[in-house]
Amino acid sequence: MIQLNYTGHPLFDVGLAAITAFSYKDDPADLTVDDLDKVADYIETYYTEQPLTSFLTVSLMNSDFTQPAFKDDYERRRRYASLVARSFGPDAPKSAELCVFTGQPAMGLPLSLKEGKDALPPGRAYRQHIPLITGEGIINFSPWGDPGLPVSGEALLCLQFFPMGCRKCAGRLLAIHSDNPEIILAAARDALNENIGAISLAKAEGETKLPDAPSTVQTLLVDTLLVLDHQQYHTRKAFQPFSITAYHLTNSGQSSPLDEKSPPLKIYHLPLNIVRFLLMFNHPDYQDGWKELIRRGWELPKSSKATREGGESNTTQTNERRRNYLYEDIFRLPENARSFVRMYLLRIPRHNAAQVDPRRSYNPRKEVNLVSWQLTDLFLREVMHMEKERIEEIRKLGDRLAAYVKAQNDDRFLFNFYKVQRYDDLRILLIRANYKNLKAGKAPLIEFDPFLTIFEEGYEVMRPDWKFARDLVLIRMIEWLYANNDKDNWLGQHPNALPDDKEIDTALVDNEQ
Question: Whole-number mean pLDDT of the chain?
Answer without folding.
Answer: 87
